[in-house]
Write a structure and sequence with these properties.
- This protein has one domain.
- 3% of the residues lie in helices and 44% in strands.
- It has one helix spanning 40-44, and strands spanning 2-3, 16-19, 25-29, 47-51, 57-61, 67-70, 76-80, 91-96, 102-107, 112-117, 123-130, 139-145, 151-156, 168-172, 175-180, 186-191.
- It starts with a strand and ends with a strand.
Length: 195
């Protein structure tokens, strides 16, 4: 079993915890990024992950251009980033509480949603092509990397217009599954074909 929830004491915390079936902690790894602005730390270190047939763990960060691959024992095999279609900017936003107090809160840009590994050991990452605005939804693409982390290209995913449309992405063999929790709670299945 894997747990991955960042802690408020980020300097000492490791993000991934692996437990046995009896709930005993076996190991922990993956250091969080420490941001200059403390409120960025929680969201900035949220992850999605998948596991391949050899129990290697692939991690993608929602708010960082950061993909990592670990052995089952927690050894870092690979660190990857990929080209983004936008400049990644995290800002502080000022807002007034009902008490009248002025506070700064995080306004962070999302980079990724999900990650999977296909039958040819390629890494698929659901990546934002643009951020949501009041007028337009966000748009996504599937970034595809080889098993060494080399960027191979992208496929559009324009039919999924909101985060909720593509919240869960899983790959099993040559099948890509998308769970859309927004429109009608649909499960979409696609076959990965070679051209």
């Amino acid at each position: 079993m894997i747990s991955s929830y960042p802690h408020k004491d980020f300097e000492k915390y490791l993000i991934i915890h692996i437990y046995n079936n009896n709930g005993k902690l076996l190991r922990q790894f993956l250091k969080p990024k420490i941001f200059d602005f403390q409120p960025f730390n929680l969201n900035g270190n949220l992850i999605n992950f998948t596991i391949d047939e050899n129990d290697n763990i692939y991690v993608v960060f929602y708010y960082q251009n950061r993909i990592e691959k670990y052995s089952p024992e927690g050894k870092l095999f690979m660190k990857i980033d990929r080209p983004l279609d936008f400049k990644l900017i995290h800002k502080k936003k000022t807002r007034k509480l009902s008490s009248g107090e002025i506070v700064e809160t995080p306004d962070m840009m999302r980079v990724s949603e999900g990650i999977g590994v296909d039958h040819k050991w390629r890494i698929w990452v659901v990546t934002y092509r643009k951020q949501r605005t009041e007028e337009e939804p966000e748009l996504f693409k599937f970034d595809i990397l080889d098993n060494e982390g080399v960027y191979l290209g992208s496929l559009p995913a324009d039919e999924y217009k909101y985060t909720e449309n593509i919240q869960k992405m899983k790959i099993h063999g040559d099948r890509l599954f998308i769970i859309d929790t927004y429109e009608e709670m649909c499960l979409y299945e696609y076959r990965i074909v070679e051209k």
